[in-house]
Amino acid sequence: MKKCLTFNNHQTLQLQLKCMRLEMKQQENGMISDTKNYVKSIPKNIMLGNKNKTLNPKAVANPIGRILAKGINATLLNKQGFLTKIIAGFFIKKVSKKLENKLLKT
């Protein structure tokens, strides 16, 4: 928004300043209305949290384990049986807890 302007007299300077102030005010009002529209479009349960549902803390406690378990089950163990996938998932989650603790300590 950097403009090189030359002014011949004080009136043109004042007129240009007035125009610039009006543009800035319009941009400010536009930003405020855009922000209000954006906030209204966000679902209320994200902003206020899930008050009706209680989250299981164990389900959220180990995100690395969940990601590793899903990834390995989908790639390496995709043709294995149900029990093999469950056992591998538990093992991976235990290993990932140790990994997560090491990562958080550093």
Automatic annotation (TrEMBL):
Protein name: Uncharacterized protein
Top-level taxon of the source organism: Bacteria
Species, as recorded: Pedobacter cryotolerans
